[in-house]
Each structure stands twice: as structure tokens, then as C-alpha cells.
Amino acid sequence: MAVTHTTIRAVNGLSVRWAKASGGSEGGTVFSAAGVWPLLAFLADGAGGPARAELADAVGLPADEAAGAARELWGAMGAMRGLDSALGLWTKRTLELQERWEAGLPAQAHGVLTGDAQADKDALDAWAVKRTGGLIEEMPVLLDEDTELVLASALALRTEWLRRFWDRPMTPQTGPWSDRTLLGLHRRSELLDRVGVVDTPAGHVTELKVLGDNAIDVHLLLGEEGMTAGEVLGAGVDVLAGRHPVVPGPQLPYGDVGPGLRVVKERNTRPVPPTLDVRTVAFDMSAHHDLLALHRVFGLTTAMDTSRGHFPGVSGFPLAVRSARQSAMAKFGTLGFRAAAVTAVAAAPGSAPAAVRWVTTSIRAAFDRPFGFLALHRHTRLVLAAGWVTDPMPYREDEEDYWS
């Protein structure tokens, strides 16, 4: 099933708004707008009044088109190699759903809430573990006896690098990591077009494409010092959308050409091709997000009001959003990348030196201070996970390859 460019722009746009609103530059984070967007779209389809308009604005589509776009997106993600995705819906037995809204969700997705908070939590946690292959261990939702409905998504993506990295200690000379010995990653190739520089209104950004073997890639993004996480990740999304051109490695001049990027002439005793020399760091991170803390970003401002119901298209019983959270993780290492996210929305009642003869070009890229990343599907350019790295893994000589 194909997914439209309009839907991809909407999902990727939510990634940028989330990054800019969360203030992620002050600390590392990882999140998945692709895990949140379909839930908001299904809620928009069933919402009424101001809540419907706010959710449609957050989704970036008219409310009556949102559910169809969510189904197309979910179908497309289900066909992507290296990506596992699932939707889940749990309701109390006494909650009657509107037939049209329920029919728009996968038939196998519907489960039952017993009203026993611990038993329900155990069942939902088990679902999260199973659907992410153990990468996420708990369902990020608040459950109590008043919980009438839980709508959740799970994403888990895995890719192996087409060209592996080799680990070695890295001790940055300057910047916030200068007092640490990190688990550095290094590789050298002749593929100069894997790196490039983009000029944005907020500053220059260096982009490095790390390709996976199943069309899931990770783009590392290093901005000028002082740029925020939102500005850097926004630049990466703008590149995907074609809003900012990238000057690729083979077209870069000599000298310091971008953040962490230098092009030099190297003398050799034999003819060698131009090379791209990359140094970055391994990271293993997780984050937990309360979506209601950014309710305006996600269109949930009115839907949080428990004085009345907001989803007449979901059920005749008045419902309001009680909880909306996401748990996410990402791991970047010598051999590949792993990421996962589980997102859940819960609804409760609304009251209502030898001789030198040859010269060659070498591009040296160093990601040795906080940077951003986008994990995406190569062909559709859909961003599946995004993050900001501030706390890379330390180097330990006695530790086996953590990726194995």
C-alpha cells in the first residue's frame, strides 16, 4: 500500500514541531512521531467540536481524511523491511464503540480492559514487549478503574550497516565531551557523496548518511555550535523534503567547509582514490515522553478537558484523554542501528615520509559534540525515529563488543 507525499510531510513535520517544542538541546532524547501520528489521526476522525479541529491541525490533514491516511501509512510501514509495527485497542466490555470508527482499525487489534489495573497493566506490558522484540518493556500509560479505552502503537526497526564501523577510543579535544573517553566509531570509504553540507537560515549543518542493508538509513546531523536540536533536526527534515539543497562531498572546496567537516589534500607515495574518513560515537539511549505536557503540539488541549466528552465518533459514552505517553529507545553501534517506540493514549469518562609523487583529496568528518539523527525509510523518506545525542557511550577496554 502506497503512502502519499502529503502524509509523509505531515508525519515528518510533526517530528520537527516535537523537537522544537521539547527543548531537546538541553539533554539527549529519542522519539518517534511516526508512532504518535496515526493515533492522533484516528482520534481526529472520532472527535467532535474544538477537539476535532485541534487534532486535525496537529495531524496536518482534514479530520475526515485523517483515518484513511493513517490506514495507508500503517499499511506502508507494514511492508517496510526491517520495521515491525502494530496497533492495539483495548476497551472495557461495557464501552460501546461506534461501528464505523471501530471498523477502521485492524480487527485483531481489539482487546479488553478488565478494570483490574494490575492485570490490565501486565497484559499491556506483555503486548509492548512482544511487539518490539523486548526493546520496550512497559506500556507507557496510566491505568486505573476509570480507564475506558487505550489506543496504542508499537514500532521496532532494525538495520545492519552496508559498511561497518570499527570501534576505538575517542577523546574530543574541545567541547562538552572533552573530558571523556568515548566509544568512538570509525570507518573510511571512497563514497564521498555520503556526506554533505546544507545552508539553513539557522546555520550550516553537516549531514552524513549511514546506509542500512534493508533501506532503513540513519542520517547524522551536526549543526553549528549554538544551534538547537529543533533547528538541526528541522534542517534534516527540510533536506528530505527538498526545501534546502545539499552540497555533496565531491563538490566541496578545500578547507573547513561545514561543522566538523574538513577537506584536505594528502600526499601519498602511490596513487589512491579520494576518501571519506568518518569519526563518530556509539550511543544507547532511551526516553519517556508525556505528550500532554506538549498538548498544543499534539492537538490535545481540548481533549484533556474531562468536564465533557470529545469523541462522539468513537463512542456515545463521553470520553476525554486522561493519559498520552511514549517510551522510545535507540542504539547506534559498529554493525547497525536499533530503535523502538511504544505510544499509548488512554481515555477516561468526561463528566459528561617517503618520496611523495601523488596528491589526493580526503574528507574528514567528526561528530565529536552533541548532534542529531534521523532514522528513515530510504525510498519514501518517512522519518521513523529521531533524536539528539548528548551522552554517548564511554569506552571500556575490558568490555566485549556491546553490539553482539
Q: What is the CATH H-level superfamily of the largest domain?
A: Antithrombin, subunit I, domain 2
Main sheet makeup: 7 strands, antiparallel
CATH class of the largest domain: Alpha Beta
Output the CATH topology of the largest domain: Antithrombin, Chain I, domain 2
Average pLDDT confidence is: 92
Any idea what the radius of gyration is? 23 Å
Q: Could you state the order of secondary-structure elements as H and E? A: HEHHHEHEHEEEEEEHEEEEEEEEEE
Q: Structural class of the secondary elements?
A: alpha+beta
Give the terminus-to-terminus CA distance: 34 Å
Q: How many strand elements? A: 19
CATH architectural type of the largest domain: 2-Layer Sandwich
Strand order of the largest sheet: 1-19-18-9-8-7-10
Strand content: 35-45%
Low-pLDDT ranges: none
Proportion of helical residues: 10-25%
Principal-axis shape:
elongated
